[in-house]
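=== Given protein ===
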Amino acid sequence: MKYLEKIQGLLPLGYLYLIILGLLKESILFYQLGINILKYSSITDILISPIADMASSPILIIIIISVVLFFFLFQVILVKNSDKNWSKKLLGSYKINNEVDKKTLQKSMIPAFATLVAIELLALFVGLGLGEGNIIKKRINTQNLKYNYNIISESGKPTDIYMIDINSSYYFYVAKGDKNIKIAPVGKINTLELIKKK
């Protein structure tokens, strides 16, 4: 029961860490495009950014769960084999006493487990920000964009666009035949139509 209470106490810290990672990823991505995304983001956008990132890509959720499960299973294997030489060497590198009973050993490994998961998430979100930003920048420069939306603005003229991102207040997109990123307030767009993917 105490173990469960400790986990519940750590959940807000975990979510705060995810928010920081989401901000970091968005900042890195948009920095490469010359945009300070924080100027265009509301508190709501910041709070839901990590969840929105994970929900937009099922592969990302699978990767995160897989890595967390891998680290958890690795911890279980280390504890079960704590009497073997290879396990003692690994546990010694984390300065964990492998001479204690297995339950105490498992509890003492939680900080190392949490640190590995935190590093994995940091690397994943920073990598996504760098990769996505770089790919979008190259595609804009070479005009190799797959136009995924059609918008009708206040002027009434339909335009094919490549949507970079949307938040609660702004659309970030590149119009067909243009190399400049446009930032339009949500209220200025009358219709946003998803172009059917072939």
User: Anything to note?
Assistant: The radius of gyration is 23 Å. The mean pLDDT is 82. Residues 87 and 93 are 10 Å apart (CA to CA). The first helix runs from residue 2 to 31.
